[in-house]
Amino acid sequence: HLATSLPLPSEKDHLRPKIDLIVFIIDIKSRYSLKNVEDSLAHVDASFFLGKVCFLVTGVGRVNCCSVEMNGIWKLGEIYCSPVLFCELELEAIRIATAQRLVQLLRICAGHVPGVSALSFGSLMWNSADD
Asked: Out of the domains of life, which is the source (predicted)?
């Protein structure tokens, strides 16, 4: 399910499935994108930041078009103890690899990977970023 911002409308709360993972998407070319994410973070319960949130930064292949400071994005990851993923949507191979990584994160957060909890996925992400 996709939402452009938080909070989610409350009129369909009873129909909404359990939320296992929140992916905040930041377009590096848009200051509005980062501001929208920062505003939306206030509506997320603190318990979600224990392994159920990540930040996905798009447009990283066009650094010369940046409207967002990378330090600000890294700071969000640190403040909220959540991993930061980078993706260039225009490159199919990177888009596919990122989608696979997000699906794996979702499987972990939903409890479908035996022996791995949502709390540990952040450390798994940091370790994989070094590869």
From this structure: Eukaryota
